[in-house]
TrEMBL record:
<protein>
    <recommendedName>
        <fullName>Class I SAM-dependent methyltransferase</fullName>
    </recommendedName>
</protein>
<dbReference type="InterPro" id="IPR029063">
    <property type="entry name" value="SAM-dependent_MTases_sf"/>
</dbReference>
Amino acid sequence: MTPNVLRRITSDWVEAYLQEDDLAGLLDEVSSEQDERLVCQTWLRKTAPKRLIFRELYGDLLNQGGRGVLDVGGGLTALTRLMAERNTFELVDLLAHDDQATVDSFLARTPDLAISRTDWLDYEIKHDLDIVVANDLFPNVDQRLEMFLEKFLPRCQEVRLSLTYYNEPRSYLTRRLNGDEILCMLAWDGALTARCLAKFGAAQSQAEVDLLQRNDDSAYQNGRQVSLIAIEGYRRD
């Protein structure tokens, strides 16, 4: 990915991608019957925008390889195995989607994958990295985007993000895991996302701010907006 170039996922881009849908073909090539039980693989199979986003974020890691990669919250798919075979690849993920038997089966068939089953905030960075990827995590699922960038940008060459947000008010009722409270969480919009990115030298132009605030041509039926960006890290060899 080209650093600091913001791109927004649109239905037109998805339609153009589907002319070949190369990621679906790669899934057919490398997947086993057991892989099809993985929740993230099911989502990837069913959702064309997710396949487009996956190709943009991970395409070079699937093809050329040879990089030191930390994948934060990326889940388990057959393509995770392929990237682990071709890169020095570690996954940091709570693995909330798959049951333990499914996870154990996948890991037994994926010996090259290093995995830390923890919150990324508690993860200890053991060495400098080439690339850190967070796909469909910030800021909709996890609103700690600023803390994430503060933690990882100093230790890598590049952070790649797919950012999910809503430009119409959207909120969630959720229960605290460590308490008896019900919380109402308001999803981030493009303006708030832009303000956070600007602190790290990204999405600073008015054109980029405007792009993040557009609410037309969503690639998803629920109106979510997704933008991709790679932010240059502070690591220098």
